[in-house]
Amino acid sequence: MSEKRPDGASLSAFFAALDVRRNAAIGGAVGLAVGIGAYLFRLLEPFGPFTGTREYPVIGPEGWFLLLAFVLAVTCGMLVTIALTARSAVRRTRELNE
Fold first, then answer.
1. Of the candidates 31, 36, 44, 72, which lies 20 to 30 Å from 25 by C-alpha distance?
2. Where along the chain do its domains lie?
3. Where, by residue number, does the polypeptide cross the bilayer (predicted)?
């Protein structure tokens, strides 16, 4: 078995075959929408203010919730990208086996 690393051309062809660029764009859009939705939910507080007396050091509650919305957006975007790429890989494998 060869220990050589694949060249850039074959790796880029692999990514193109799995539509990774398209999947990443869709994942980024979904993640952005989820993050904005979560932040707006907190900002507008449709169910009233959160109860309790919590301390939010340094950047205040809005800053912390903005950071949490960013983490949620990135995580959702990555999950959607992985799911779409896995679906593309399965579809491509089935096409090659036919």
1. 44
2. 20-45+62-98
3. 24-44, 64-86
